[in-house]
Predict the structure.
Amino acid sequence: MGHSYETVTLTRDVIGILIPAGTKVELPEGAQAAITQALGGSYTVQVEGHLFRIDGKDADSLGKTVTQVPQVPDNASETELEQAVWDALKTCYDPEIPINIVELGLVYGCRVETLDSGQRKASIKMTLTAPGCGMGDVLVNDVKSKVSQLPTIAETDVQLVFDPPWTQDMMSEAARLQTGMF
């Protein structure tokens, strides 16, 4: 397949997460990186034949603009905040599949509750396309990072569960069409 990816020169040293191993690697300033995926504010780049995930907060190292999380009023109700959490989850992508984790059917549940302090706690149950996927920690951290940026969210609890195991049937119809899995 002849994809034409945008090639950029890293403007500074940046930490990339090796796909699918999940190992952190420092990529040097001046390295050539081909951007293979730019979704949800994070980037998948190819450097010297290896794929790396670069966090959205480091977009400047690729000469890109750092993306902001959708804003929600501080006085949002639990229902409004829960919708905002779902919206934030839709900006989390499996680094190897260009479909967000909600459309992939990886999110089994999401609940927002108000704590005694008046702050909120988001509890998310999710799975991975395969147990032992090296990107599990990366996805969990991506979810925690994006959800905890929402106003009044003081705690983000992400539980990885493998029961029921994920199957392609859990993908939305749009995701199945996009990947050619119908």
The chain has a mean pLDDT of 87.
